[in-house]
Design brief:
The protein has about 210 residues and is mainly α. Helix content is about 80%, strand content about 0%. The protein is built from 12 helices and no strands. Helix 6 packs antiparallel against helix 7. The radius of gyration is 21 Å and the shape is elongated.
Length: about 210
Amino acid sequence: MQFKSSQFSNNLGAILMQRKEAEASIKPIKKASELDRSEQITILLAQSYQKQSQWSNAISEYEKLNLDSSQNKLIQMSYGICLMEAGMNEKAMAAFHCAIELDQNLVGAWGNIGEIHRREGRSQEALEATKKTLLLDPNNTDIYLNLGIIYIGLSKLDQALNSTLKSIEMNPNKANAYINLGYIYKHLGKLDQALNSTLKSIEMNP
């Protein structure tokens, strides 16, 4: 009977998760975890917390798994994302490297490593990791946008301009790309273009 109860709660939580009702999914999955602490239920509960941006709760659940021997790259990735959002960058970096050991072509892991380096002021390391993501996913407009930000940090404004313009060429509907473009043009002394780009960002995101 206990197994059936936990299975019911787990199934209900999983259905709610699939319907993108993460907050509602937490209660039945927690109930299932009290009755049957299986890896599947632990992962579901961690994912529910993660979708609600409850980073500390998600981290706590992921750490109940045997992460040191886990061969699931997506679990390592999700754990790393929660750590990064919680500001635990060193542990996040370790999780992303574990994911990469399982799959050298994991674009998201390389991208997050680049972002951690950028946040901590290591622009050259951020550049190297982000260039790796570009090799793996050359049609991703966000990577070009991130490259532009990193080049700004390195005071390489011509490269920043080229990367940002490439991002806009691929997807002209990102307001933050025009904000960055305005900043770059301003620091290149191209004030008319800076004004136009800034006005464009306001028009897109009033």
